[in-house]
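Researcher: I need the complex structure. Ligand is magnesium ion. Inputs:
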Amino acid sequence: MVERVFSGVQPTGNLHLGNYLGAIVNFVKLQQTYNCLYCVVDLHAITQGVDVWGGPAELARNTREVTAAFVASGIDPNKHIVFNQSQVPGHAELTWIFNCVARVGWLSRMTQFKEKAGKDRENASVGLYDYPVLMAADILLYRATHVPVGEDQKQHLELSRDIAQKFNNDFGASIHAHGYGDAFFPQPEPIIQGPATRVMSLRDGTKKMSKSEPSDYSRINLTDDADAIAQKIRKAKTDPEPLPSEEKGLEPRPEADNLVGIYAALKGASKAQVLSEFGGGQFSAFKGALVDLAVAKLGPIGAEMKRLTQDPVYIDSILAVGSARAQAIAAETMKAVKDIVGFVRR
Ligand code: ATP
Ligand code: MG
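Model: Output:
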């Protein structure tokens, strides 16, 4: 089977440092060794309330902005496939088949649903509950073998593996009879790498930095200018102690751990290396260095994103070409899946 990378980012606005360090940085690296598909997952975005995804005009704007972020960060849309999910109908089609493979009990254990639905679970969309099945379909539609994600998506990746395995078992005889050997779908491997796989909110070290968090001070957006970055880092919550010299000293201090992890990831160093430089010092000096580093690394990406989004025709052409290439792979998978399940087709 071909080794293939798939991953996605939702166009829910406010792309932030967590998306960049937890996901996009790894997307860029993996281009060297794999064939990659990077998807703006617009079908996922509408699973949340319209107050979160912003309505039709915002959805289109954010779809183009995520595409621009991919390209500005160093993803090459000529060598790899960059597209938006809704242009390839197989994502929704395979989701339906997987809905009949996945079990209600599996979905009921998903923590992202519990967090996003909150107290008013009866009022959550059916789509939000089904989100992990759509994610399994995204990956397996391309029979992708590797999936770079942030730590928060680990549980969903496990569910994707369970769905792939149950499909392979349930249809084992048919898979064999159609010449696909013992397994049609691979077991996709998560790639969760680096010192910032779970970047936390700057206001609360126990909550993940998130696009859909109402407070803008909780996150650094990729489009923030130098002043905004400086202000947010200076205001970031810390404790009164100096920085520890050893990594172990970060364990009971989520805010310190988060800022050191961000610095390490931006610098391409380990947390231990960062502490050997800043350990024993006050936060004020460390925050100053973090501001300089963050502005130097994110400034050019934000500027390039702004430049690219001024040319929506160019962005839309990237998505159109990428979607056509994705569709060619997806169509092959869907033909095979239909044969395996027993759907009569043209
Ligand atoms: P939302 O709040 O709407 O779910 P999000 O910030 O979680 O938005 P997603 O589009 O759901 O963003 O996730 C895109 C990628 O970014 C995923 O691989 C996810 O694991 C990763 N990611 C999201 N937040 C963080 C974070 N705080 N730290 C590291 N990785 C993250
Ligand atoms: Mg998310």
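Model: Summary of the prediction. The radius of gyration is 21 Å.
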